[in-house]
Each structure stands twice: as C-alpha cells, then as structure tokens.
Write a structure and sequence with these properties.
The complex is a heterodimer of chains A (647) and B (414). With 647 residues, chain A is α/β, with parallel strands linked by helices. Helix content of chain A is 47%, strand content 12%. Chain A has 28 helices and 16 strands. In chain A, strand 4, helix 6 and strand 5 form a beta-alpha-beta unit. Chain A is globular and about 75 Å long. Chain B has 23 helices and two strands. Chain B is 61% helix and 1% strand. By secondary structure, chain B is mostly helical. In chain B, strands 1-2 form a two-stranded antiparallel sheet. Classes of the chains: A alpha/beta (647), B mainly alpha (414). At the A-B interface, helix 1, helix 2, helix 3, helix 6 and helix 8 of A face helix 1, helix 2, helix 3, helix 4 and helix 5 of B.
Amino acid sequence: MDQPLSLKLASMSLISQRKLESILALCGDKKDLIIDPILIKPLERICGVGWLRQHGIDKIYKMDPQLGPTANINKVYFIPASVQKYKCVLDHISSLISQNASLADLGCFHIIIVPKFICSYDSILESRGLYGIVKLHSFSWELMALDEQLMSLELPFLYKQLFVEQNHSLLSSVAMSIWSLFHVIGKPKILFSVGKLSASVLDILEVYNETYARDFLNNNSSQEIGALILIDRNQDYQSSLLTPATYSGLLSELFNINCGHLDLNVKETIQKKGKMDFGFKDEDVASKNAVMTLDSSIDNLYGEIKHRHFSEVLSVLSSKAKLLKNEDIKALGIQEMKHYVTTKLQQVALFKQNLVNHVLACETIISDMSQKFENLKFTETDMLNNRNKKANFTFVDENFGTDIHIYNSLRLMCLLSLTQGLSYDEYNSLVSKYLMAFGYKYLYVFNNLVNAGLLVQPSSPKLSLSISNLSDRLPKWQSGFQVAANKLKQLPSQPDKVNKSSPSYVFNGGYVPLTAVLCNTILTSESLAEVFTKLSALSDLRVGGDILEKFSNGMETLNQKLSDLKLQSDLEFGCKDAKGLSKLMKNDPNIGNVFPLKPKSVFIYVIGGVNYAEIAACDLVQISTGSKIYIASDCVASGRDLLVAST
Amino acid sequence: MDDDDYWNTSETKAQALSFDDDVLSAQEIIAIGQTPSIGKTEDSIFTNSNVKSVLLPLSSLVSPKVLDLILLAQSGKDPNKVTKLESEETVAVTLKRLVLGRSCTLHVHRSIKSKKELLDGAIAIGDGNAILSVVLFLIQTLNKKLVYELLSSRPLALNHYISFLQNEGKVTELTDLLTMLGRSSEAAIYQFQHYVKTQGNNVDGLIRKMSNLLANYFNQPAVDAQQSKLVADYVKLLEWQKYVNKQELNNMSPLYCLAYCCTHHWHETAGNMMSPMTVCQRQQITPLQYDWVVLNVHAKLHKWDVVESLFTKKDWLGRTTVSSHIPIETLLGRLSELQASSRLMATCVNKVAGADDRLRLAQMYKIHSVVIEIFAKQKDRIALTGYKMTLNPQSEEYILAENTLRDMSIKWKN
C-alpha cells in the first residue's frame, strides 16, 4: 500500500459510499430520497445521482416542511442531527400516516441521520407512537478531502452544539472519524490533545480500540504520520476572531463557502449583508453567481495564491494574465491550431475563467474592506499586546454606534473582551448599542457568547466591590491571555517587521495561531521533555497513543479505570496529563524515542472548526520545517461562523 | 490605460478588465463559464461534478475484514449475539455499550450507588450521548430532588440536561430546574430566548410574555439591573409598535423604527407618536446613533439639503462648518460611500484639525479643491505640480490647480 497519502485520503469517500450503501440496502428496493439541502454538497462528494439510482433511489426531493406526497411508498429521509429537523420529518411522516393508516405497517419510513442519532431521538420516536414504524440509521461519513492536505467532516452544526450549548452528544463522531482514519493511514506513535473535548475524544477512541479487537488494526505504527494533534476550538479563539490577511482567509470573510465551494456573490457580500438595514433593502434578485471550487488540484491558480498575504495576490494574477496574453494563437498553423483546440483550449478556457473569478473576488475584497482594514489591523494588534486599551475601546464603541455589523462587530467586542477585558460600563454600552441596531430580541445572544467562552461578562460593580479585592480592579500589565501567548511565542514583538518566514503573517504579523505553534514544536523538538517544556503554558495538554505503554503503570482496561474512578477526577484512559507524565520521565526525557518525530509529518485535528488563516500558517510551518502537515476538522469555519452559532 | 496601471491602481471596476482588445472581457468570460454543461438540467438537485474520477480501489485502502468492522461500528450492532444475563451488566459494561451506541438496558442499575457510578463514569469518558442517556434514565427513576442534587455538583451533566430541555422546548421544566439551583438569572434569559424564537413577530404575544418575564424573573435582585432595563425597553418598544400598528415594524429594532419614521414622518411634530423624536426619546437612542440613522436615511433618499441643514452650521464668521456626533473620519468615509457632493466633503474635511491629517484624508477621498488649497497654503509648488498631473486635463480641478500655480500672490518655497 504505498500509494501517496493524499490519494488515500481522497479515496476515503469510498468508505463513506460503502457505509451509505449498507444503510440503503436496509431501506427497501425502490425508494424516494428526501434530503435536507445542507447535506447535498457533502453527499455529492460521496456519490453521484447515477450511483444513487443503482442503489434504488428513484426520485430525489429537498426536505421542506410543506413537502407534499412523493412518488414512492418507501421513503428515505436524509437529515443532519438536529432535533428541530428531526421533529419536522416526524411531522411529515405522521401526516402521511394520518392520510393513509396502512403505511404504518409497511416499514417504509427510514431516516438517515448524519453523523448519528442520539439517545433522545429514540424516546421522541416512542413518545409520538412511531416506534417500530420509522427506522433510524446513523450515517457517519468519513473525513472528506476538500483540498490538498485539508480534510473536513463537513458538520457545520457541531460547533454550536459542542461549545454554545455544551452538549457533547455528537463528540463520539469525531472519535469515530479518527478511528476510521487510523485504519487507512495507520496509527501514529503519539497522540496529543489540547482541551477537554480533545481529551474526551482520545478516551472514546480508546473505547473503540479496546472493543473492536486490536488485532484487526495494523499494529505497526503509521509509516506516514508521526503524530496526531487534537485541539479544541476554544483553546485559540483569537485565531478565529482576528481578521485574516491571507487571500483564502479574506474570501471566507466575504463569501459563503459550502463544502469547499465558494459562491461568488460580488453584489451582496457577507460584509454588506450584515450591516444595519434602514428599510432600503434592494429587492433580492436571485442572481446566478459563479461558483469557485477551492481545491488546488482542480484550480492550480487558487493553489498558488490561497495562502498568500492579500497584498501579493493581485500581482500574481497580473503576471498570469500577461502570460496568457503572450500566448499568441494567431501565429499557429492550421494543424497546430487543431492540436491546440483539442488539447489545450479547454484548459486555457478554464484557466481564464478561474483567473477572472479570482480577479473579481479580489476587487470585491478591496472595495469592501480596504477603507477599514488598516485601522482594524492596528487595533487588533494593540488588543493582542494589551496596548492602548482606552483607544481600542473607543474604536469598538464607535463602530457599534455607527457602521455596526451584525457579526463582525460582535467579533471585535469578543476579541477585546478576551485580550484586554471589558469593564461593566463598557460592556453595557456595547450591548445596548447592538440591541438598538438589531433589536432587543438579540439579548440572549450575549448569554450564548458567554457560555461559548467568547465573551467574559463583567460583574456589576456593586457586587464585585464586596467580593473582589482591590488588586483585581487595578489595570494589569498583562492579562492571562498575554502571559500564556508570550510563553508560547505567539506575539511577535515588532509586528511591522515580521518577515515572511513567520506564520504570524496570516494576521499581519500580529499573532501566531496556536495550531502553528503546536505543529512547529512537535515537528522540531528533540525529545518529549522538550515538547512539554515548550508547551508548558498550555493548561490542558495530554498525551495518548502507544507511548503510554512505556510508562510504568501502562494501560488499563476501561473496567479497571472505572472501578478506581473518583468523583470529578480525570479518567486518563485514552490519554494522560502532560504535567503528570513530566514527573515520571525525569530519568528518561525522551521516553519511547518518539522524538525527533519520524516520519516528519503530523495530522492536526481542530474540534469546532478550523479557519483558513490557521491552514495557511500551518502550511508555512510545513515549508520551514521540511515536513508535512495534514489538517482536519469538523468544518472549515470563519470567525463569523462562530458568532452565527450564538444567534 | 496601460495594463500595469490597471494592476497597480486596483480601483478599476470589473468592466475595465480586458487583457487585450480581442480578448474577452471579464463578463464575457464569466458568461461563457456559466453556459450550462450538457446533461445538467436546471432543477436537478445534484450537480454530479464532484466525485473525483481517480480514486484508489476500496480494497487497497482497507482489508475486507476491517471494512466490515467499520460498518459494524457505524450500525452500533453487537457482533456477539449472546445476550448476557441482565445481572452481569456491570456499570463498566453498560457504559461501554452506551459509548458504542449499542442497545442496553439501564434499568438493571437500581441502587443509587450504581446510578451515581454510571453518571460519573459517563462524565469521565466525556461522551455526551452516554451522559444524556444516563441523565434521562435518572430523571425516569429518581425523584426530582435527588436528580437535581446529583446534577448540581456535576456541571457537565447539568449542561447536557439544560441543552436537552431547551431543544425539546420544555421551558417550564428548565425554569424550575435553574430556579431550584439558584440560577434564576439564567432561567430568565433562557425563557427570553425561548419566547423570542417561538413568538416570531407577534407583538401581542411578545408583550404578554415579556411583561410577565420582566415582572417574575428579570426584576429579581439576582438579575443584573442593566438586563432588566433592556427588557423593560423592549416592552416599551413593542407597545409603541402595537400602537402604530404597522406590519413592517413589528419586532424590528429601535433604529429600524427610527429610520422608518425619518423616511415617512420626518416633518411630524415632536408630540406625535410617529415623529422620529418620539422614538428617539422613548428608546433613549444615543445622539451618535441618531445622527447615523438620520444621515443614512436622508442620503439614501437623496435629500442632501436635509443632510446639510442637519450636519452643517454657519459659525459667527459666516463660514460653514460640520457639526455632528459622528467622528469626523467615520463621517467622511460614510459620506464618500454615499456619494456626497464634493462641496460637502470639502466642508467636512476642513473640520479636521491637523494639516497632515487633513491632507491625508483629502487625498484619500479625492477632495481636490482641499488638496490644492493645502498645497498652496504650504507654498509647495512641486507637490501641487505633481498632483495636477494626476488630475483629468480640462477638468474643473485641473484648471483650479493651474490657476493656483499661476497665482502671483503665492510665494512658492520651491
């Protein structure tokens, strides 16, 4: 099996296809597929219409509460794991049964739920009298290769559940995706987790490993991946909240991207749509926009510019345009012309189209962002470094009072809150301006932001005076964020002078994403002890994988672990705390001889959505360390998407 | 225009994009790119273009045995058909089955001790589905007081239950739970969210629910005073909306309502319910936000005379100056986006105190008369000559620059 890893990863769609096939086989011969629109694009990456027909799908409908009767008796509903959508489907089924009671006995209703159905779905079914009439199926599709070295589970609703609602019902799907992945690429010698959810995923992963007889797995460690790193989104919200400076990052600021397809709506960008509405909304003209596929293997030009700082992109495009211009086809003879038409013309036409799309996108970015970009950039960098707090607040407050944006303004507020903090009065000033602009109905949004950890709600001065002592209220030279970020070398001292070899270029030299720091540390350390030292500022670093067997107490079964469990202590089943392990390795700083990492490649998996700036920063680390970094997540999400999840 | 100029100015609009005279323009190329491909009908849901043709065969990815295992794991079925006796169902066995998504009977765990162990085990593993399963089982089999006691010391389990109640719309139970745990301010806000999401724009329903919430939950000492004030303001606005009875204003924001009144009732006198001033005072809209709305509304209606009368005034020397709560740079930026007259822009930029800032902004927004004036004041002939070159020959500004350069009264420093 020495196929290139990228091809193996792309081919995992066949496993998804096989999984779907096994479900469809249980749903009767000739059937209708009723699909929730958000699942269409991801499903297209797994199978085509032809394949669906081969597997008994006769007609395809979009799921809609008003959907009337469909052609076939057998119906397969295909929805994401959302209680609301699930109930909507059950309503639909109930109404069909009320019209024709005999349907209840035919076993003709199936609901496929992505990535899985959770326990409450069964009880909802039972309570509606549909148990036994409707059959539920979990479809846990595999990671999808969106671009070279970029994998996504395409579950954009996961962040909201995991972080805003703090409901971890679907967390095991992440573990299952990794478990499948390991069957294909082998198991890395060492696994790292940063954050609580990541640690839980390693624990759940170990339950799978223990259950599904280990001997099925190729027990040799992976030849292609040296380490897996799992990280929770909330361990580095700054990377999501900052305005990216890369081309792909800015694209995701302005355009909707669904499953790697960008909708090039240059008239109504996200930036424009989120502004206050004064009652002058132009009639929504449903324009057919160009669609750009953000995949370097399809669009080479995109591959060349995606990670670049935006200031360089136009000159690259310009040089490409000139090359195109110089290709003079008039000088060709008739035979040459024929050859050109049959072999190159289509390619050139496609290239031209891509070029035009990228130029249009660039111009939209410039016209939408340029005015504010400079000031925004300075303010953001000042916030990160805890400078000019008063001026930063004034900047945000003024933005809230004038050209407020429904998501991006909140994003600024969150960034200020997480880096420099907001006083009670400042907080309320922003909240009240926001509600004036968009409506009091959004009051709950701030509660959700606080729950997600994106915002810190200051307590009322009356209350805090009695509780806290004076030192808490004095201005601080460094906040907790700056202390940790400085230890991890995330804040370049002179952002203006950062050269292109620093991953911080993705934020104009202001900040190095934590993902890049983790990859860089793990790829360049000489020993495990060195990794621990360099990452000691992380409060929630854990280690898992076969390396744990090297430690004296070794692995225990889940039964043993649970029997020793004390209330609210850590299970330490699939992974162990780095601080605890450090003590055990005094005599053997490079226990297990995992470091320097071999093969020199890592797989980093962000739980709660990775963003394009992080992807670009990791790409730079892979170049500078001469390694390979594969990135995976449950979806590719911009900072705005995190805020949308709170509304 | 030369190609290089195009790429360097980057302000050029899309229609200017053409690489060569007989090369298609951007629009034309896009048009070609969008001609429907063969066999693709308008109403087909699938585009069918994404399945990559070159993939490895499944068998070279994973062995058939492993593939079966992967399918088994997805289905949550138990490979061993032997159903164990229920009594052998230990806490660990149950938890494992829960995590794997297999069917299991929680009901064998009847003692409080094993119930607690189940809960703590599920929390320790961290699988939310297992946690929720156990919590729902506890709700079924223990009395509420005991469950709440268990949950109150286990925040993760509590969160799962809260999320469950929220998704199920069981708002009364959620309120009881949180109130019992002494978290009444959260109870208030969760109810708020529930009513906002279920009532839609039904003003009557919202007034009833919100007034009720305000009286029973938000006005309690545990709730932040600022929050209850905002809810009170909400009720006040809803009452106004009920009174004016305009469908399009229902449950809209204060500023939206203000914009509506500015558009349709600008000349209404202060006491009238539809007067912009009434809305402004009722909802205590800040002067900054008021100015912003008034500016945008009138500019979009092309009533520049109103804008000027509101935002400029004559000083005692008879000069026109700008007076607004909107900070001057923000105001300039917005005026430029709204395509204000260059005269208004000039008045506005003249308000900027520092000469350097004034020059920077005048250049940024291409307020030529001001730029020329500043260069003349600085007696900087070279700069002015340079600037003249960037202007359109024969334009008003060009002539102004030329005349200024010829002005004998200026003693040029260079």
